[in-house]
Write a structure and sequence with these properties.
It is a single chain. This protein is an alpha+beta fold. 54% of the residues lie in helices and 12% in strands. The chain has a single domain (4-111), classed as Alpha Horseshoe (Serine Threonine Protein Phosphatase 5, Tetratricopeptide repeat). It has a two-stranded antiparallel ribbon. Helix 1 packs antiparallel against helix 2 (24-37) and helix 3 (42-54) packs antiparallel against helix 4. The radius of gyration is 15 Å and the shape is globular. Residues 7-75 form the Serine/threonine-protein kinase BSK1-like TPR repeats domain. This is Serine/threonine-protein kinase BSK1-like TPR repeats domain-containing protein. GO terms for molecular function: molecular adaptor activity.
């Protein structure tokens, strides 16, 4: 029988497949199941944040991205950037895209990037 950590990774992998198929609600469900089994893994939180962005659920995306950074300060996949406006203080969630070597990806590479 698989450990909870192994089950969580399997849910994350299923979430990645749903994300690649542009099935954002299913991806969110799988990432949520992974988080329920292991809420200490920042990748699960950042992947769900990315899926929330695709559904335009920005508040949930910011919450999950914040949690990922709390779990692993300096987490390179997400960062919150304050953006001031004349009407209110707002926040934008920005994905920081890097290749495995740390360089900026080309347009072609960005097109193929998926949650980890």
């Amino acid at each position: 029988m698989a450990t909870p950590e192994e089950q969580a990774i399997e849910f994350k992998n299923q979430g990645n497949k749903a994300f690649a198929a542009h099935d954002w609600p299913a991806a969110i469900d799988f990432y949520t199941k992974a988080i329920e089994l292991n809420d200490k893994e920042p990748t699960f939180w950042s992947n769900r944040a990315q899926a929330y962005l695709k559904t335009e659920a920005y508040g949930f995306a910011i919450r999950d991205a914040t949690k990922a950074v709390e779990l692993k300060p300096g987490f390179v996949k997400v960062r919150l950037v304050p953006q001031s406006s004349t009407t209110s203080q707002t926040f934008r969630l920005r994905a920081r895209l890097t290749t495995p070597t740390g360089s900026r990806p080309t347009t072609g590479e960005r097109r193929h990037m998926r949650p980890s």
